[in-house]
Amino acid sequence: MLKQNFSNRLYQNVQPIWEKNHQHPFVVGLGTGTLDREKFIFYLKQDYVYLIDYAKLFAIGVEKANNLKIMTKFAAVLHETLHFEMELHRQYAAEFGITRADLEATEPTPINLAYTSYMRKVAANGSLAELVACLLPCAWDYWEIGKLLKSTYGETLATNPYKKWIETYSSETFGAGTQWLIDLIDELTIEKSEEELHTIEQHFQITSKYEYLFWEMNEKKQDWPI
Ligand SMILES: Cc1ncc(C[n+]2csc(CCO)c2C)c(N)n1
C-alpha cells in the first residue's frame, strides 16, 4: 500500500518547534534589522563551518544514492551550498572585514559540533531516508523563515542590513532545492515500516530542535567556557 506524503506528517508534527524558531529573538532581529551586529558576526562564522560539514553530508547523499537522478541532484545542491549559500556568508564577512581564512578557521561551539556530529552519525549508520530527514529541517525551516520575514518585514527591507540574508533564504533557488528534498523524503518513505518512519521522524524532530539551539547559541554567543 502506498503511504503518501510522509512530509505532511513531518510538517504537522514539527509545528510547535518551528513556531519557537520563528519567534526567536535572533530571527525576529533579522527581520526588523535590529539584530546586534556582533551577534550576527558570531552567527556568520559559526554557520560557515556548519555549512562546510553540511555540504559534506550532500556528498554522502551522492554516495548513498541508488540512482543517477538522485546522485545528480545531490551533487547540484552540494554545488549550490558551496557557491551560492556560502557566498552570502563570504560577502557579509567581507563587509565586516573578516577574511575567508578567519571564516574557515572558526572553532565550532559545543552546540554547533553536537548538531553536525549528530547528522554525521546518522549519515554513517543510517539509511538515505534517515540522512535526508536530518538535512531537511535546515533547508525547509530556513525557507519558511525567509518567506515569513520577507512577507512580514518586506516594506522595511530596503534599509535592513540583513536584507541580503532574507532575500537569499526566501529565494526560488532555495525553494527549489528544499522542494526537491521534500519530494525525495516522500519517495524514500513509500515502502517503509511504521518503525522505520518513527526513526526518520525522530531525526527530523531532533534536528529541528538543534535549529532552535543554534539560534539560541548565536543570540547568547555561547561558546566553550574554557
Ligand atoms: C544552522 C543552519 N541551518 C540551516 C541553514 C540553511 N541551509 C543549510 S543547507 C541549506 C540548503 C542547501 O541546499 C540551507 C537552506 C543554515 N545555513 N544554517
Automatic annotation (TrEMBL):
Catalytic EC class: hydrolase
Its pathway, per UniProt, is:
Cofactor biosynthesis; thiamine diphosphate biosynthesis
Enzyme Commission designation: 3.5.99.2
Under SUPFAM superfamilies, the record lists: Heme oxygenase-like (SSF48613)
> Which Pfam families does this one have?
TENA_THI-4
An example GO CC term for this entry is: cytosol
Q: Which InterPro entries match?
A: Haem_Oase-like_multi-hlx (IPR016084), Thiaminase-2/PQQC (IPR004305), Thiaminase_II (IPR027574), Thiamine_Salvage_TenA (IPR050967)
Identify the residues that the record assigns to the Thiaminase-2/PQQC domain, covering every copy. 12-218
Catalyzed reaction equations: 4-amino-5-aminomethyl-2-methylpyrimidine + H2O = 4-amino-5-hydroxymethyl-2-methylpyrimidine + NH4(+); thiamine + H2O = 5-(2-hydroxyethyl)-4-methylthiazole + 4-amino-5-hydroxymethyl-2-methylpyrimidine + H(+)
Q: Which UniProt keywords apply?
A: Hydrolase, Thiamine biosynthesis
Report the superkingdom from the record.
Answer: Bacteria
Instruction: List, in alphabetical order, the GO biological process terms annotated in this UniProt record.
Output: thiamine biosynthetic process; thiamine diphosphate biosynthetic process
GO molecular function, a single term? thiaminase activity
What is known about its subunit structure?
Homotetramer.
Tell me the function of this protein.
Catalyzes an amino-pyrimidine hydrolysis reaction at the C5' of the pyrimidine moiety of thiamine compounds, a reaction that is part of a thiamine salvage pathway.
PANTHER family in the record: BIFUNCTIONAL TH2 PROTEIN, SI:CH1073-67J19.1-RELATED
The record's similarity note reads: Belongs to the TenA family.
Name assigned to this protein = Aminopyrimidine aminohydrolase
What is the organism field in this record? Caldibacillus thermoamylovorans
